[in-house]
Amino acid sequence: MTKLINDLLSMAKLEDVNLETRKVPFNLSNSIHDVLLSMDAVMIEKGIKLSASIEPDIMVKGDSDRVKQVVTILLDNAIKYTNENGQIDISLLKSKRQVIYSIKNSGKGIAKQDLPKVFDRFYRADPSRTQEIGGYGLGLSIAKTILDSLGGEIHVKSMEDEFTTFTFTLRL
Hints:
The chain is of the alpha+beta class. Helices cover about 35% and strands about 30% of the residues. Strands 2-4-5-7-6 form a five-stranded mixed beta sheet, with helices on one face. A two-stranded antiparallel ribbon has the order 1-3.
């Protein structure tokens, strides 16, 4: 219940039009490595193989705490929905005037009809798994709200019983 309340408070703060977003330069590559290190034990416990291709020293202008929150949400979801002994692939690269972060996990995937709704608040493609996996369907909505406030974009693609990939972009 505490997590739900904290997520709702976070969402309310993010949507406050008077709240100014901090935009300072920070090293996105290092931030992603920090998040990966913090969740390494969970991946090992689940037997997940991690492949990370992170271009070093990519500097972006934004709110480092909020961007780290997005990376954490996406990695947490990937871990939750990756099949036992599955695979997570992460990449970060610079392309022209933007950075592209991508996280792909093996597993059940998301049904085609559910893809347009995954960023909606409280949306769960399979509500019966809420207690099994945890969460309230707010993480992806929070991630999208953060990226919108920073001028970024987020997209998802998935193939049922194979993989799910989330990709976000931020301007340099």
